Amino acid sequence: MLNPENLVEKYAIGQPVPRMEDPTLVQGLGRYTDDIDLPGQAYAFIVRSPIAHGVINDIDLSAARDMPGVLAAFDGKEMQEAGFGLLKCRVPLHNADGSPMAHPERPALAIDKVRFVGDPVAVVVAETLAQAKDAAEVVGLDIEPLPAVTSARAAAEPDAPTIFDEAPGNVQMHFHFGDKHKVAEAFATAAHVVKMDLNNTRLIVAPMEPRACAVEYDADEGYVMRVCSQGVVNMKSQFLNDILPKGEKLRVLTGNVGGSFGMKFSAYPEYVCMFHAAKICGRPVKWTDERSSAFLSDQHGRDHEYAGELALDKDGKFLAVRITGHANVGAYLTSVITIIGTRNVLANLLSHYRTPLIEIDVKDMFTNTSPVGAYRGAGRPEANFFMESLVDRAAREMGIDRVEIRRRNQVQASEIPYSASNGSVYDSGDFPGILDRALELADWNGFEARRKESEARGLIRGLGLGCYLEATAGPMPESVGIRFEEDGSVTLITGTLDYGQGHAGTFAQVLVSKLGVPFEKIRLIQGDSAEVHVGSGSGGSRSTMNSGAYVVAASEEVIEKGKIAASHVLEAAVADIEFAHGRFSIAGTDRGVSVMELAAKLRGGLALPEGAPTSLDTTHIGKGVPATYPNGAHVCEVEIDPETGLTRVARYVSVNDFGNLINPMLVEGQLQGGVAQGIGQAILERVVYDEDGNLISGSFMDYALPRADDIPFLITESRPQPATTNPLGVKGCGEAGCAGSLTSVTSAIRDALQRAGVQEFEMPATPLRIWQALQDARAAAE
């Protein structure tokens, strides 16, 4: 039989503990938002604009209201009259000249103009979903078309149609960082300057679970909203502060969430409509998106059209880096869009490298496309892709080995902590050690033999290297509660929210390590705003850093309370009470009481002197912990069939520094998922609009996601350098896979194509685009 110390060790920090939620989920017993069926529930369907840009002359709902089973049909004017507020960006910034950014706020249903295909214009509520759909078909839309623009660069042209009057030239914000005069001087005096276009393609997010929302209303209790989200406190605050009429009450509930990758962080127009629908119908109303409309209405990811420049001295040392260009924010501002192509690029661009000067000059542009928001990494993979592309180009143009140019510029372990020119302070890391181990593990020097073997089979083999460093999300308010229940279980309450990461087991491991409570007795509450009052949700690879840190802090508070209570139970001085492996004891004796026993005694009404704790329950609230800097080096090899253009990832190796690992098995899973999404962007995925703003890649028939056979066996290794900015020494890992794979896979593809005479190529490496590039290179060589 395992003793308490062995039990703690089994589930301690660093052990590969299976996910607690998997037995429920793999049996199909998960409870997602669409699984909810409330008594008397009605169904809503959203009427969307078929036109990308136009003036709304009229919305005729009369025929829809007369259809069988219809309970209500309404438009934006009705919601405006009912007092609903507008959707806002949660991160307002200033322009380079200090003026406020353009911040047009969005009504839940378009009132005067539509601005993208899929813009919600009306809602129909009926007894059944089929009846709601039928009624939506007869809603009369009189929309006068206007010219549309879909790319950020085109939106900046002088003759581009104006999308918002308050955003002249379609410029939502002009972001600038850096001393442009010093940077210009560095480029003017550099021995070599690299410049290249760096286009980061737009992506469909496509989580397994579509967005869904069910709302019920009671005049006394207010609204109860069930929604898939990334944090109930954040979602509640968006609605109460910005959208719901003043004085309304709201409880937000989130159950299981089938993926998000950033796009379920925000309040959406459809959710606002459900509040109005539930109130006027006097019964619960549910809306679930369908995949075809989700392609239109979900926030998209990425979409940057930048130029990158790198200045170097004669020895290949970096002098300055400069990024200029345009970021596409779509037709409306989402909650955090302003930081993605601007501040997040700034924070992540420098990666492993000493670069004395940096300048970012980016304009966020409105276009007639679906709004863009956070997508796994949200500026981090993009920035690392930009930098690594420039480094590869510099090595080629200057005739310096790709590995050597990186080594010459890497921040050395002896320089840590290192203050970078973008304002970041790297508190830990061994970048040269990470790179050397990745090259060794990947057998970098043996590539030539593998290339020749591929060539013998008629294939072109390419070798790619991608170093990356991420600045994870910074401090945000967070809380952790620990509650000892009557049934002997322990409830852990956090303000983050699991949408696939495996929080339940991870946080339980921290609690077991600190308090020694039984692992199987721990349950996690995150998805109820009646229980969680402070928390910023999950995003930016920050959950374990923040919630984990506060599990430690809350555990320490439990121990301090417990020592006082135990001193009375054991009849000893507080100073003589020790705590280890879940047990309070008198120093130097075997007399003691476990934390679970002590909690039960207090709960049972144990009489203690005045001032002594009456419970071990505690809640710790804090402002959040600083950003961390996960980093790594990924090595990828691809094979390209020149006859078909098909690209296959043949080998993949990654070495990463995620600080101390709470659960290595979950970290590996997060890394695998991120790598898969980076491969998808590099080889398969791209959103395409036509000139009128119609989404051409509007379904999985036209938009390819990676499948199992597109993902190679991944060789991974951890080389942790513990973070010094949080008590667990952890660094974020959820988004790092994208940063490493996007850089290394595109590097390998470019390497292969350059061997075949293709000098310039931009992702995605779809078979047609690869084949055409090879044909063009052959024709040019003849």
Question: What does this molecule look like?
Answer:
This protein is α+β, with helices and mostly antiparallel strands and 782 residues long. 31% of the residues lie in helices and 23% in strands. The protein has 22 helices and 28 strands. The strands form seven sheets. Strands 3-5-1-12-9-10-11 form a seven-stranded mixed sheet, sandwiched between helices. Helix 17 links the parallel strand 20 (490-494) and strand 21 (522-525). The model has no long low-confidence stretch (mean pLDDT 95).
Q: Kindly report the CATH topology of the largest domain.
A: Aldehyde Oxidoreductase, domain 4
**Sheet/helix structural class:** alpha+beta
Strand content: 15-25%
CATH 4th-level superfamily of the largest domain? Aldehyde oxidase/xanthine dehydrogenase, molybdopterin binding domain
Strand order of the largest sheet: 3-5-1-12-9-10-11
Q: Level of helix content?
A: 25-40%
Give the helix tally: 22
The domain tally reads: 3
Keywords:
782 residues, alpha+beta, Aldehyde Oxidoreductase, domain 4, Aldehyde Oxidoreductase, domain 3, seven-stranded mixed sheet, five-stranded mixed sheet, 23% strand, globular
